[in-house]
Amino acid sequence: MFTPRFLTSAFLALVCTQWCAAQGPYPGQIKNLVTFGDSYTDVGDPGDNATAWPVYAAMYGNFTLYPYAKAGATCSNYLTPRLFPSVFEDELPLYFTERENGSLVLDLTDTMYTLWIGTNDVGVGELITGQQTPGVTLVDTVSCAVDWVKVLYMSGARNFIVQNMLPLQLTILYSAYSYPNRYWAEQRNTTEWNVFMTEMTNTGNALSAALLSALTPTLTDAHLGK
Ligand SMILES: *[C@@H]1O[C@H](CO)[C@@H](O)[C@H](O)[C@H]1NC(C)=O
Ligand SMILES: *[C@@H]1O[C@H](CO)[C@@H](O)[C@H](O)[C@H]1NC(C)=O
Ligand SMILES: *[C@@H]1O[C@H](CO)[C@@H](O)[C@H](O)[C@H]1NC(C)=O
Ligand SMILES: *[C@@H]1O[C@H](CO)[C@@H](O)[C@H](O)[C@H]1NC(C)=O
Questions:
Q1: Which residues are paired to 37 by β-bridges?
Q2: Of 38, 133, 135, 155, which sits with the fewest C-beta atoms within 10 Å of its C-beta?
Q3: Residue with CA at minimum distance from ligand 1 atom 7
Q4: Lowest-confidence region among 13-17, 173-177, 210-214, 222-226
């Protein structure tokens, strides 16, 4: 979208440094990569015509890719209503339907699940412009992402990577020096958006780390990286 690809790569390298250093799957264990999220992970139509990261990761790691991420997604359209598929109302249901009807057969000990969500949850049309379902806050959208781990764990999944939100305040859309663009052409106070977005990405990522740390002791036999 509006984020240079190198940010994505740098981020993945960081995840691996932390994840690989901790006790995780053994080398060669992971054979399948199942991805959830928004346009940053959607393999259908990378905005810049480049290679979507899951395609690259699957090639690099020799994984079979099962991509469920959809452009425009938030974690849940009940929390942040949008005219796009969401993780909980569309992506997970499709995954479970395919598992139940036998069209998707996976050995779950060999399978890594990833979730990269939040950009649209906190972004224009949702939290930053106050258009979420009344009463919904960052606490709800981040808890929703943590619930993705719970739901998949209950169904037998054991290997997870939960990806951080980008420092969205550094993108054109949310910079103090922002200008009219395809995502927002109306008047706004760019300083205010930049300050608010900085709070949301930093607080959201720290909250999900805390919630996941509290959750992991209950996930027997699971590996979880962030
Ligand atoms: C992507 O490819 C299409 C078709 O070749 C081209 O029209 C479009 O300008 C390209 N977009 C970018 C961002 O390079
Ligand atoms: C890649 O994965 C397939 C299926 O798991 C396996 O048969 C093959 O040996 C692997 N190739 C390499 C180079 O590791
Ligand atoms: C299983 O469900 C998926 C998603 O609805 C569908 O595309 C697929 O054709 C179904 N397969 C079978 C064998 O019913
Ligand atoms: C924009 O927001 C900043 C930070 O709240 C404030 O200092 C500034 O006065 C605002 N500018 C305008 C034109 O309202």
A1: 116
A2: 135
A3: 49
A4: 13-17
